[in-house]
Amino acid sequence: MRILVVEDEPDLLRSIAQALREEGYAVDTATNGEDGLFSAENSDYDAVVLDVMMPKMDGWEMLARLRKTKKTPVLMLTARDQSRDRVRGLDTGADDYVVKPFDLPELFARLRALIRRSAGQTRNVIEIGDVTIDVAGRHVVRGGEAVPLTAREYALLEYLALHRGELVTRTTLYEHLFDENDSTMSNLLDVHVSNLRKKLGTEFISTRRGHGYCIE
Amino acid sequence: MNDELQMANGEKDPVGSSAIRHSSFSFLNSIRWRLQIWYGLILVTVLIGFGFTAFQLDRGRVYRQVDDELQRRAGALSQLLRPPRNRGPQGPQGERPFNGSPEDQMPPDGPPRGHDFNVGPEGLREFHLPPMQARLFDETDTNSYYFVIWRRDGSELARSTNAPVDVRDPLPRPQAGEREPAQDNAAGPPENRRGPPPPQPSQMRGVFRESEIIMPPGERILVGRSIARQLADLRLTALMLTGVGAGILLLGLVGGWWLASRAIRPIEDISATAVKISSGDLSQRINIGETESELGRLASVLNSTFARLDAAFAQQQQFTSDAAHELRTPVSVMLTQTQTTLNRERSAAEYRETVESCQRAAQRMRRLIESLLELAKLDAGQQQMKQVRFDLAQTARDCVTQIEPLAATRHVKITCDLPSLECVGDSERLAQVITNLLTNAITYNRENGDVRVKGETTNGSVILRVSDTGMGISAEDLPRVFDRFYRVDSSRTSGNTGLGLAISKAIVEAHGGQIEVTSQPGIGSAFTVRLPVA
Fold first, then answer.
1. Per CATH, the architecture of B295-383 is what?
2. Cβ of A125 under 8 Å from any chain B Cβ?
3. Contact between chains at A101 and B344 (C-beta distance less than 8 A)
4. How many CB atoms neighbour CB A58 within 10 A?
5. A80-136 pLDDT, tens per residue?
6. Who has the most CB within 10 Å: B25, B328, B507, B521?
């Protein structure tokens, strides 16, 4: 899952990005609305975390412009908890909002829900054969036994599971699983796929030669 | 069940007591009712006074009319009873001894006049009404004038047939021995002898009005008539006056109620609006119908007060919300940093980074809190500005020296043009203003830009101008740069609190001065501080 965080306070931006990366997300950052809009328009993010008060272009305007081209789920970070601000945010096209100061677990939960909903999934648990994926708890059970997965592996599995039945191209996977900072070693997609097959069964992920991967 | 009952009682009670309060309020304390009562009292007093006077006048007129008629008739009768004057004008007058008994004098005084009189030693014996006078008394009509004449000894000499039977000689007749002095008194002073003696005041006896004349020798003439008709008329008049009075009173009360209601209505409007405002809706205004009346003026004064209150309240709310908002971001930083860091074991460098960023957030909060407190004090007028004579130019030069390191990092060159600027005030607080202006001029300047500090003294004021070659401020932002928490770029970069210019403005204004800004986007801005010389 790849997420764009747009926030002008450097300390806050850094710590949100770090926390999200540690949760296994690929995270891109922007410190103002203009840069944020450019990034959001030119990549397919699974979600955007957007601060309202920013220099150059504020969150409202960036959201309004983004909505002209993209349906990327947007979670607004607002320092104003007055309902007219929330109403304005939701009306402009925000999918959810979190009021500062917020708890990280709440921010993560809202992001997960946002991504799940945008993939057309309403439940927190995805069952594929004897494999059960708990999206909220970020753990996987196969035949009653927990399957230990690295953050990358889990992210790959979750993405494929959320888009179950669809052919997911390698490019898409690259775009959604790795951010600009990822080193070449960590983005060896084939390695992650073969690790997942070892843990969940060879047939679990099928390969379409020259196209991509798919969970049936 | 019991609890429910108690709850119900508990809920009912305040409603009941408030209803009682309300009812006692509406009657005794209501201005409308008090006005109404006063109207009523005044109106009743006036009407009773007027009605009573009118009735008295009318009654007096009727009585006077009747009395005149009675006295005319009594006078006519007394003319008949008067003995003829056969001794010339002087004779009887001069000879009449005051101490002589009337019986002795009567014969020479009053011999019978022709056929009408028969005078004996006790006075007249017989009396016949001559036709001329008979016309004055219609004896067939019981409602017409009647007369009764008594002799000196109290026996009846004559009585008209229509005289009521209960008409008796009202005076107790003195016994023979004591008669003279009493008779003398009754007769009156001797000078009056020439005309008819004055009639006694008329008196009422039942429905009869009667007038009496006591002749000098002792005959008493009583003329009366029934005035039942006049009395009935008077009663009717009284009834009519009462009726008209009651009507006027009713009309007056209704009109008074209407007037009072009209006069009270604006007060009720004001009161209703005030109630809404006191319950928290500050946007309410009194609907002013007529602006010219006293209440209209009061209402417009109240309205402008409400408007100012509303604005002040809104400003306060905005300020509080802005302040809270400003504190949210540093708190968010600290929360996110600590939560992320504590998620797992970290290296010493990572911990250090977290602590440093928390420190930055805390510093920012400290700056913000200090600025807020300072503004609050300036708002409350608690911060007394010192009144010391000093050279503002020297203060400005000190500020420039202090800010040089910051200017150096941005490669901004500061040039000063500062002649001596004598003024009176608090140099420390004004230094704060200059430092703030310089910081802004450097922060919002371009790399290798210029900052000019120029001072001058013109008629009555000291002027200090700080101009930069920065990005400038757009025309729409310009009027708001002194607003609290207003930031041209709506960001929180470079650690400014958004309160600096607001505080500067408050300090300059506390000195009785002004602060102004002019700006050209892309070229630069200039802040001008104008202070009174002394």
1. Orthogonal Bundle (1.10)
2. no
3. no
4. 19
5. 766 777 787 788 888 998 888 888 889 999 998 898 888 877 788 888 888 888 888
6. B507
